[in-house]
């Protein structure tokens, strides 16, 4: 069979790029923003690449490009749509207003852990409640990170009033609404930019899970940590270019299909949950300050603000003709059954 190389040929600039097997009929380029040292790179992106290659008997080779080497975080989804990359692992919310129903899972009190959130979002997709948002690519699996928390440089936040005047990195527009409601000044940026922004004093803290504190070295700069159980989570996906998938023969499409869905969603979730434990332990070992809000998002001082932000988001989507409340209700049901 004539070898088919998908996409333009790029120089292999990092040690983490998998060499192209000469016997491969298809070479896929998988782009993401995590650094090569991250568990998500090694045990999700690279592990998926290796498994697809093995399952195809070497007929599919996968080159993994970490650290945004093919496209910046906000451009990763379009990079796959436009075939700059063939596959990506990215955050839906980095492309604002594109996946509004998907991002319902990010609202306060929905997900309890990465495993729980990943089960929720994968089922929402499989039940076709959010699948219409992904018609321009082929999603392989969806997942979430664990609970997001607030990490600051100089001030330990104990109540919403403590946010006043603080510039906090936020990952998505959904989280921005939460921070605005709490009195903070949200500053949008992908996680890889947070370290430099804190270091330069551009922001006073970040909204991240403990995994992010570990992966992006934020424990080096933020020594005050506020845990509000259920504050938010963040949705991710691994997705593929439609034309690339459709060009494959049925037996190789089956290899991709067999490495899609809930099993891989939970593999990713497990990595996030384990990294959360490591990230918190690192902060504890460094002698940092912690404050855990009693009752989490149901705490009387926090609940009215967070409920208002959630209601505002759902009402905004409903006004656009989107079934946000139905998706939200199903997400809450799944949160209980996804144990």
TrEMBL record:
Classification via InterPro entries: DctP_fam, TRAP_DctP_sf
Keyword Signal: yes
Coiled-coil residue spans: none
Keyword check for Glycoprotein: no
Keywords, comma-separated and alphabetical: Signal
Cleaved signal peptide residues: 1-23
CDD domains in alphabetical order: PBP2_TRAP_Dctp3_4 (cd13665)
PANTHER family: BLL6794 PROTEIN, PTHR33376
Protein name in UniProt: TRAP transporter substrate-binding protein
Organism: Amphritea atlantica
